[in-house]
Amino acid sequence: MTDTTTQPIPSSKPRNLFQQLELDTRLLGMIGAFIILCIAFNVLTDGRFLTPRNIFNLTIQTVSVAIMATGMVFVIVTRHIDLSVGALLATTSAVMAMVQTEVLPQTLGMGLNHPATWAITIVVGLAVGTLVGAFHGWMVGYLAIPAFIVTLGGFLVWRNVAWYLTDGQTIGPLDGNFLMFGGTNGTLGTTWSWIIGIVATVLALLTLWNARRAKAGHGFPVKPIWAEVTFSLVISGTILGFIWILNSYNIPSRRLARMFEARGETMPEGLVVGYGLPLSVFILIAVAVVMTVVARRTRFGRYIFATGGNPDAAELSGINTRMLTVKIFALMGFLCALSAVVASARLANHSNDLGTLDELRVIAAAVIGGTALSGGIGTIYGAILGALIMQALQSGMAMVGVDAPFQNIVVGSVLVLAVLIDIIYRKRLGAK
Amino acid sequence: MTKSPKELRAEGATPLVEMDDISISFGGIKAVDSVSVDLQPGEVVGLLGHNGAGKSTLIKILSGAYQKDSGEIRIDGKPVEITNPRDARSHNIETIYQTLALADNLDAASNLFLGRELVTPTGLVDDSAMEAECRKIFKQLNPNFQKFNEPVSALSGGQRQSVAIARAVYFNARILIMDEPTAALGPHETQMVAELIQQLKAQGIGIFLIDHDVHAVMELCDRASVMKNGQLVGTVDIEDVTDDDLLSMIILGKKPGEAAA
Ligand SMILES: Nc1ncnc2c1ncn2[C@@H]1O[C@H](COP(=O)(O)OP(=O)(O)OP(=O)(O)O)[C@@H](O)[C@H]1O
Ligand SMILES: [Mg+2]
C-alpha cells in the first residue's frame, strides 16, 4: 500500500457524552422503568412494597425464572426458542424429588436426611437436565428440526414424564439440607452476607480497573476518570445497599425461637437476627456472573452471538454451528435443573404443577430484557432485570389487590409494549 | 522471487492447487460440470463468466462451503478432502466471499478474528488485543476507517468489504480466493486492492480472482479461466489474448480461434 500517512488513533471525532461514557442507554431506561414501578407500588401500598421483607421475598421469587432466562438469552440470540423449560423444570424436579425421598433413603437405605443426599440429588438432577437439553439441541442442530417444534413436543413430553414419575402426587417433605436452596430456609446470615458483599464489590472494581488498563495499554480512548469513579461508586453502593436491605429483614422471633429449640437451646431474650443473603439469590448472582463472562469473554459466547448475527458467516468462519446448538440447549437444560432445585426447595416439596407457564415467563423476561427474537442481540443482565420487572409487576399488583385475571392482562400487555418500545428505540438508534 | 509462475508451469512443476474434473449439481442442475483449474505459487488466475456461470460455486467447493459430487482437489500434488470451512482453513485457504459472510452484529475486530480469536493466558477472548491488531491492518488497507467499535451493520458496503479482505489476508494464506472483492469499492479503494494483490503475489501466494471487469483481469492476472453454464470454456494465458478475445469467450463460449459451432 502506498497510502501510509500515519494517523493517530481517533480522538478527532466529536463524541457525545453518552458515547464517551459508554453508557447503555437501553439498560438505563429499564432501570428507570423498574424504579418508577417500585415507587408507584410503594405509594399505592402505603409503603409496604419497598420494605426489606418484601424486597427479600421479591428476590427469592424471581430467582427461578431469572436463572432460566439467562440461558434463554443464548437460545434466542441464536434464533432458536425453547418452549419446554417449564416442563423440563418439572421433570428434573420430579427426578430429584424421587431421588431424595425414595431412591436414596429407601432403595439405597441411606435413611432420611443423610448428609450426602442433597449433593447426590442435585448432581443427578443437573445431569438429567443437561442430557435432555443436549438431546433437544441434537435434534435442532443435527436433524434440523425447528427448535419451536422440538421444544413444543418437549413441552408435552416432559410435563407428562414428570407426572408419570410422581403419579401426579405432591412429593414431600424434601430432604432437610436440600431445602437450604429455597430462600428463607437457607440464608447466609448477616456476617457472611457482608463478607460476600465486600468481596463482590472488590471484584467488580478490580474488573472495571483491569478493563480500563487493558484499553489504555493499547492506547484506546478511555472514559474520563470522574466517570469511572462515579460508576464505581454506583456499583459499590448497589451491591452493599442490596446486602444491607437483605440483612435488615429480621427473622421473626417466633421462628427464631423454634430454630433454637430445634438445636436444644433457648433463645436469649431480645435477640434479633437478620436473614441476610438467601443461598438461592447467591446462586443467581453466581449464574449471572458466569453467564456474562461466557457471553462476553469466551469463544463459546462469541460464537453464539456470531451465529445469531449471521449463521452462514459463522459456518463459513469454521464454527461448528451444529455442535454449538447442542451446547446451548444442554446449558439451557442444566439451568432448568438448577431452577428446579431452587423452585422445589422454596416450596419444600415437588408439586405436579411446578413450573407451569414458566416457559412464557422466561421468554418474556429475556425479551423485556432486550433480547431480539431476530437473533444476535441480548444481554444476561437485561434478562435478569426483565425477570425482576415481571415479578415486581405481578407481586405489586397482588399487594394492591388487583384481580388475578387483570394481573395477567397487564403482564401480557407490558410484554408487547416493551417490545414495541424496543423496536422504536432501535429504529431511533439507526440499528436494525 | 526465483521463478515466475509461467516458468514453473513450463517446467511442469507441481501446482499449488489443482481442482480436477470437479462437478456439483443442485437438484438436477449441473452448476459445475467437469471443470479443471489450477494455480501456481505467486500466480493470479482470473475466473470469468456470465452471471450464474458457476464461478462462485466452483470456488466454494475449494473453500469448504459446498461438497463436490465428483472430482479431486490436490494441494502440492497431494489429494485432500475438504468437507467444511475448517478443513480449508487448515490448508491455509482463505476466502473473500461474494456475500462477504460477516456477522453484522459484531464489530470489525470480532469479525476479523471470528473462529480464531486471540485469547489471554487464562483462555478468555482478548478484545483489546484483537482491536489493536485490527487497527494495524486497517492502517494499510483502508487508513480512513475509524468505526472500530461499531457493529459492521453500521458500515458502508465498501467498508464491509475491507473487513472481509482484511480477514482473508491477515492469517498468512497460501491460497487466496477473492470472489468479486472490489464489487462495492470506490476507485481509490479498488486501486488499493489491486496493489494488495500484487503484493501478495510477490509473496508467493496463489490467488483465484473472480471479477466481471475484463480490464482488471487483464491487468492483474497471469491466466484466465472462462466458464459458461457450469462448463469450462477454456483457460488462456493473459499475454496471448486481448480484451476482446476474453469478452467473446465469455459471451460466445468459444476459445479464440475456434470455429463457430
Ligand atoms: N445453494 C444453491 N442451491 C441451488 N442452486 C444453486 C446454489 N448455489 C448456486 N446455484 C446455482 O448454480 C448456478 C451457478 O451459480 P454461481 O453462484 O456459481 O454463479 P456465479 O458464476 O458465481 O454468478 P455471479 O457472477 O452472478 O456471481 C446458478 O444457476 C445458481 O442458481
Ligand atoms: Mg458469484
From TrEMBL, chain B:
Pfam families: ABC_tran. SMART domains: AAA. One of its GO terms (cellular component) is plasma membrane. GO terms for molecular function: ATP binding; ATP hydrolysis activity. The keyword Transit peptide does not apply. SUPFAM superfamilies: P-loop containing nucleoside triphosphate hydrolases. Keywords: ATP-binding, Cell membrane, Hydrolase, Membrane, Nucleotide-binding, Repeat, Sugar transport, Translocase, Transport. PROSITE patterns: ABC_TRANSPORTER_2 (PS50893). Signal peptide: none annotated. It is a peripheral membrane protein. It is found in: Cell membrane. It is an enzyme of class 3 (hydrolase). PANTHER family: CARBOHYDRATE TRANSPORT ATP-BINDING PROTEIN MG119-RELATED (PTHR43790), GALACTOFURANOSE TRANSPORTER ATP-BINDING PROTEIN YTFR (PTHR43790:SF9). This is Ribose import ATP-binding protein RbsA. It comes from Cognatishimia activa. The gene is rbsA_1.
